[in-house]
Structures are given as structure tokens and as C-alpha cells.
Amino acid sequence: MADSSLAIAILAAGKGTRMRSALPKVLHRLSGLTLVENVLASTALVQPTRKLAIVGYEADQVKAALSNVLDIEFVAQTEQLGTGHAVQQVIPALEGFTGDLLVLNGDVPLLMPETVEKMLKTHRENGNAATILTAQMDDPTGYGRVFCDQHAIVKEIIEHRDCNAAQRENNRTNAGIYCFNWAALMTILPHLKADNDQNEYYLTDVIKDLSPVMAMDVSPTEVAGINNRKQLCEAEAVMQQRIKAELMLSGVTLINADSITIDSTVTIEADVTIEPQTNLRGRSVIKAGCRIGPSSLVEDSTIGANTTLVHSVVTDSEVAANGRIGPFAHIRGHALVGENCRIGNFVEVKKSVIGNNTNAAHLSYLGDAELGERVNVGAGTITVNYDGKNKHKTVIGDRTKTGANSSLVAPITIGSDVTIGAGSVLTRDVEADCLVFARSPQKSIPGWKPKYLRDEQKS
Fold first, then answer.
1. Residue 376, annotated ligand binder?
2. How is its cofactor bound, per UniProt (predicted)?
């Protein structure tokens, strides 16, 4: 019985000179994930038993970016001498392995999990020594051509420069994605030579010595490589189209979908409406019945059911159900906003806990604060949390009301059922169930004029 184990090897060692970036090419981001993470995501349906990333340029950065991937192994390619050379580097790591090896490119992020699943199934059902993905391109100029018989068995692969005029009429191209029977590959791979103008070891050179090798056609879009920022932008458009199509079919309404961006890592429940110019990022979760936007940003945050969020920014935070957020609110820094809360016009909440049914309707800053339930924050209330060196906490009890233009100088605790008079600057704790105010007595000076007017009168 054939070994059903599967190893994947992801080629992720290149610099990506045409990206014109200090960042390794495979770490550029596409819809919330790095390119190499998108490639890993394409293997979700085949459940590989071994995952190997072949790293080279800025290897430590690549390793750090993939540190959260369970059981991933890293193989060093200290010199980039071609695809064949890259795969040769996994030979020691796969000693004793007898299954199949799937070779993926770290800069081909649009490959669908269903395609990978079908490729592996085709490979195993036909007992292939190798199965390769191919694409029928309208303009195959510059690509190696794959020549097959009527049963999709590969006869040869010829580089574009070596094709004659008739051979160039063939528009089936090699996508550079392979599935090998490891035992069969090991009869050839260790002996691969760099007999070409580039002095590189090409993985395509093993194909002529393996049998049978089968081609499987896929959409050119799926196997498009990313070599520059323009191609990255084009791939983003494809990915966004996929993400939004899936969401709309699952019960999410997108208004002017082309103006919206949504990362592949975002979760959105049914009966959510996303309005124009809204951007949803990271590991955000949007619960059922929400209206998000227009012109809002939610990043790595959870928005509770039936919340409305308009013209606002929420990052690294959580808003519970039935909230009313915005317009022009900013919630950040691991803030927790309770149920039925109103965080309104030009209110910033930073690293604070806001109790249920609390309102901060306008023009306030709540930083490093803990507010109880049914607190009413008057316009212009400021928690004065920073002394120039350290941040300090403000605690406000249930049902307390802050007057307009109040400043609460932390560290400070305000009890429950307190009413704070408008314009107060509080520097000491306040006990529960009282009225508190701190303002200078009002004075009027009859006949007063500024000095420049007095000087003008004298002259």
C-alpha cells in the first residue's frame, strides 16, 4: 500500500530584487497575510504531515514571520542556485521519508486549496512519479512550454528560448508547482547538474527522467507569481474579489464593494452591512446585524452584534453588542466597551473598560480608565492620565455623571452616583453619592480694558 504521507516544501529563499524593498519578497502582505502565509493557506485541504520552508535571504525575518505556524521546519539555502538546488536542500531533512512531496513557490499566493487538493488526488490516483501544474496562457512569451499527449502525460518541457516557431504556438506553460513521489524523485534529484547558461540547477530537468509525469491545467490567475509591486496590486484585486464574493454569498451586504477592503483573516457573520470606504483588517470579528461604515477602519478587533459604527476607527479592542460608535470616534489600545454603549463624536477611548449602558457622546478622552455602568460622560471630559513619565488610572463608579469640560487628574477614583459640576478639575478621590465641583469663583472687573486699548486712549 502506498504511503499517504505528504510533505510540502515552500521555496522562500529569494530576495525579490524587483520588489525594490529591504523586506524579503515572501513577507510582503496580501489581504492580511504575507505571501508565504497565503501559500501555506493553500494547503489547508491536504493536511501535510511535514512542512518545510526553504529560507535564504533575511532568513531570520522569514522564520520570525512564520513562528506561529505549527510544526514548520526551516531548511537553509545559503546560495540561491535555482529551484533544483533549493529542493536538494531538503534531502537531509526528509531522510527516511517515503510519501509525496509538494513543491510550492513562496511568491505564488493565489493558488486555491481546492486546486491543491485536486492535484494531489490526480497524482495519487494515477500513480504518477510527478504531477505538474500548467496554465494555458494567451501570451506565453518567456515561459517554458509543456508538451503532452492526449492523456496529459508530459513528453517534454522546452524553455521559450529553445522553442522553434511551431513549438512556440503551444500556449501550455509550466507553472512551477510540482507534486513528486519522493522515492522516484530521489533517484534523480541528488544527481542534478547545472548544465545551462545560468549555472543553476533547474527542477524541470528531473522531469525528463521520471515516468509517468502528468500535467494538470489551472487558471493562469491561480499560478501568477509576484515579482513587483504592480503584480502585488493585481493579486490584491483578485484576492479581494474572492473574499467579497464568498462573504456576499454567506449573507453579508457590501455597498459599493469595490471601495471596501477586507483581509482574508476577518470573520463576518450574516446580516452585516459594510458601507463604502470601510477597511476591515487583521483578526477582526464582526458579529451579526452590525452596520459598519461608511469610512471606518476596524483592525484586530471584535464588534458585537447589532452595533453601528460610522466614520470611526477601532483597533486592538472589543465593542460589545448594541453599541453606537461614531461618527469620528477612536477606540484603541485594548479597550473594552460594554453593551448598549454610546461612544460618540470625537471621543477617544484608549486602554479603558467602559461599563454597560454608558454614554460618552462627544468631545472626550478616556485613557487608562475604568468606567462603571450607566455612566454619563459630559462633553469635554478628560481623564488626565499622563504625568510626563507614567500613565495613571481613573476609576468612575456606576451612574456617575461628569459635567462638561471636566478634568479628572489620575490616579483618581470617583465613587458611584456622583455628579461632577461642569468645568471641574478634580485631583483627589471622591466618595460615592455626592455632588462635587472645583472651580475658581467668578469675578467681574467693571471698566476693564486690555493694556493696548488703554494706551491708545491715552494717546
1. yes
2. Binds 1 Mg(2+) ion per subunit.
Catalytic site includes residue 191: no
DSSP string covering 372-415: -TT-EE-TT-EEE-B-SS-B--EEE-TT-EEPTT-EEESSEEE-
> In angstroms, rounded to a whole number, what is the distance separating the alpha carbons of residues 230 and 235?
9
Per-residue pLDDT for 194 more than 80?
no
Query: How far apart are the C-alpha atoms of 293 and 361, rounded to whole Å?
Result: 18
- Whether 379 and 361 have beta carbons less than 8 Å apart is answered as yes
Catalytic hit among 28, 123, 311, 362? 362
Annotated binding-site residue? 385: yes
Instruction: Give percent helix, percent strand, percent coil of the chain, each to the nearest 5.
Output: 20, 30, 50
Tell me: is residue 394 an annotated ligand-binding position.
no
Residue 183: CB atoms within 10 Å: 13
Confidence grade of residue 226 (pLDDT, cut at 50, 70, 90)? very high
Distance CA 333, CA 298 (A): 13
Instruction: Domains for the chain: give ranges and CATH numbers.
Output: 6-218 (3.90.550.10), 229-436 (2.160.10.10)
pTM higher than 0.85: yes
Question: Is 107 annotated as contributing to ligand binding?
Answer: yes
